[in-house]
Amino acid sequence: SKRHGEQSVHIANVSAHGFMIDNNVVFEHGDRIELRLPVVGRIEAHLIWSVDGRAGFQFERVIRLPEFLALVEILTPKLR
Fold this sequence. Notes:
This protein is mainly beta. About 15% of the residues lie in helices and about 40% in strands. The chain is globular and about 35 Å long.
């Protein structure tokens, strides 16, 4: 976000509509941020809820299914 500068966040889960972080220390309700995600590229989101260090963001646009599936493939840890 412009207000908070560049931050590192831990995305705990992601959907085609948004994501949750579990290490929120600076973002507040309504904050807008810009992310760079694999496959998807640059996407904006805004914070819609925050509880006990967790925060939920909604993407400004829905990620199309093929992009979302490719993103999940990249982000999912491989079990060996």
